[in-house]
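Subject: Homoserine O-acetyltransferase

B.,
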Amino acid sequence: MTYQLKHSAIAGGTIAISLFGNPELPKLLVLGGISGTRHAITPTGDGWWQGLEPAIPLADYCIVGVDYAGGIGESELEQNSPVADLSEHARLIAEALIAAGINSVAAVIGGSFGGTVALALAEQGKITIKQLVIVAAAHRPHASAVILRNFQRDLLQLAQTAGNADLGAELARALAMFSYRSSQALDYYHPEPKQAYNYLRSRAAQLVASNPRRTAQLFEQFGPALDNFRLDPQGIGQPTLVIGFTSDQLAPPHLMTEFAEQLSNCAGIHLFESSYGHDGFIKDTANYASLVREFLTLSNKT
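Prediction pasted inline below.
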């Protein structure tokens, strides 16, 4: 399997993309969370969403990944050009794909932030999308998610005012990670509570050390984009498979159900038990991979 890394030119910058598989095959776009990169699924097996690989018939598709503008990765925009909302993220991705010669995709699989971007791509219609798989994301934000993201920005701003921006980004990231996991998972994997705290702080510190400025932008730009996102599900015409997790406090079951019920072409909603909370979209792929594969395979035959 070939793995190509490219930089697609757009107005005011470049978007980094990846192609895994035969580029002559139908494209399948994979979009992840705010800190996700184009390296979701790789031939070396170290992608950050590698567990999704069994869901995709690699003989039938070429997997496309992207680095979000302003996020972690190699996409670059001109200085002072913040990406203010989800529709702008979608527009930039569509522009980059078209510049790379990709005018249509067989499907978009979007998890968390990537699920909202996938919906915005479908709504805009700048590229043709045959079907959607939306995991742990919905048509509007939940109040708990908005509250948590506002606290994250407050921490960042207070630390910046105090002259310690990196600490603010670290604390904001740690709080974000806390919201991604369920209380059950934290208690099970960290029977000593202090270990759970130290784990979140250390993982957050790793991300900040890799790129302090861009980590801060995840909270300054991506957070408000999520908070302000609203979309009418009835306007999404593609067959859409919806997947959620019972312990997810950011995209809870009642919100996922509301979303699925309002879709004009829902291909089914599946809510899985998970100890991982919102991170179930990454950690519990074994529960839903076969559903996604069946959905993609049936569509590929029609």
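The beta strands are 3-10, 13-20, 27-31, 62-66, 76-77, 104-111, 128-135, 240-245, 266-272.

T.
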